[in-house]
Write a structure and sequence with these properties.
By secondary structure, the protein is of the alpha/beta class. It contains 15 helices and eleven strands. The chain folds into two domains: 178 residues, Rossmann fold; 101 residues, Magnesium chelatase subunit I, C-Terminal domain (Helicase, Ruva Protein, domain 3, Orthogonal Bundle).
């Protein structure tokens, strides 16, 4: 690992990451503010990870995803999750063709580069689970046939955190397949003033394709080359293991608050997302601040709270912050 030429790597990444700035400029023409949300969507895109956006209605979650897919010149499909949705409505089904006297496959909206699962918690478990194979293996099975999905393939899901009536919480197995869970907040007063002015004018800019899917696949290969020192690797492992065994990492006061900690996917995704974040900052190496910046989004949906934590109004954010403030930074 010591033989890595950091200077040459920096130069390569500076060139390969030039499109990130162009994407940010393009999305800013449509989306006012919400830099955090756009940044998280970009990390998912570069690190080949699915993104779950949680926020109240009207915060431009759907618009941000549509805008990003337009800028990448990728195929986009949107599925509005409802209680009466069926798995076949997402992945497709077998249709009988009378002229040929045989069944043929009719592909569903999952066959796209960007799949927006809008209000994913409004559909029952059997529909949510239809996404599992596509999200993990990047393939879909219909009848006896298995189809590989086009790359890049990203599931970008939204959910409303306040409505409980008529919703079905995502099972842990599916939540764990999302690389990031980003919590979206209200815009500032100045940003909202600009949003109101743009909507009153009714003059919305159209986004032209800036990068191709091939450019994204090439960038993903470069992201994997970003240098990560052994000390950073150890730092990531210390954070994840502290969520599983708080007492063994000097956090005994958290033991009664955590029912389960981050899975190995948490370690993998924290490492990959840190590399993607460094790439976006046009750096050829990961620093501890990259890990700390992205940690809440990787871990918040991978830590289970006990009844005691809920009774004391302690959140996953509180626990992650305590872990980050305790684990030694290299």
């Amino acid at each position: 690992m010591q033989s890595v030429d950091i200077e040459a790597l920096n130069q390569q990444i500076y060139i390969d990451s030039a499109f990130v700035e162009k994407l940010n400029e393009a999305t800013a023409k449509v989306i006012v503010g919400q830099n955090y949300m756009i940044e998280r969507l970009m990390i998912g895109l570069l690190a080949n990870g699915h993104v779950l956006l949680e926020g109240l209605p009207g915060l431009a979650k759907t618009l941000a995803i549509k805008t990003l897919s337009s800028a990448v010149n990728a195929k986009f499909s949107r599925v509005q999750f409802t209680p009466d949705l069926l798995p076949a409505d997402i992945i497709g089904t077998m249709i009988f063709n009378p002229s040929q006297n045989e069944f043929t496959v009719r592909k569903g909206p999952i066959f796209a580069n960007f799949v927006l699962a809008d209000e994913i918690n409004r559909a029952p478990a059997k529909v949510q689970s239809a996404l599992l194979e596509a999200m993990q293996e990047r393939q879909v099975t219909i009848g006896n046939d298995t189809f590989k999905l086009d790359q890049p393939f990203l599931v970008l899901a939204t959910q409303n955190p306040i409505e409980q009536e008529g919703t079905y919480p995502l099972p842990e197995a599916q939540v764990d397949r999302f690389m990031l869970k980003a919590k979206i907040t209200y815009p500032s007063k100045e940003e909202e003033r600009e949003i109101v002015r743009r909507n009153l004018k009714g003059d919305f800019e159209k986004i032209d394709a800036i990068v191709s899917p091939e450019d994204i696949l090439k960038a993903r290969k470069t992201v994997r080359k970003v240098y990560m020192d052994e000390k950073i690797e150890q730092y990531i492992l210390d954070i994840v293991f502290a969520s599983r065994d708080p007492k063994g990492h000097g956090l005994g006061d958290l033991s009664h608050l955590i029912s389960y900690g981050g899975s190995p996917r948490a370690s993998i995704n924290l490492a990959m997302a840190s590399k993607a974040y460094a790439f976006m900052k046009r750096r050829g190496y990961v620093i501890p601040e990259d890990v700390r910046n992205i940690c809440h989004d990787i871990m918040r949906h991978r830590i289970g709270l006990t009844y005691e934590a809920e009774a004391e109004n302690i959140t996953q954010e509180d626990i992650i912050s305590k872990i980050l403030n305790t684990v030694e930074v290299p």
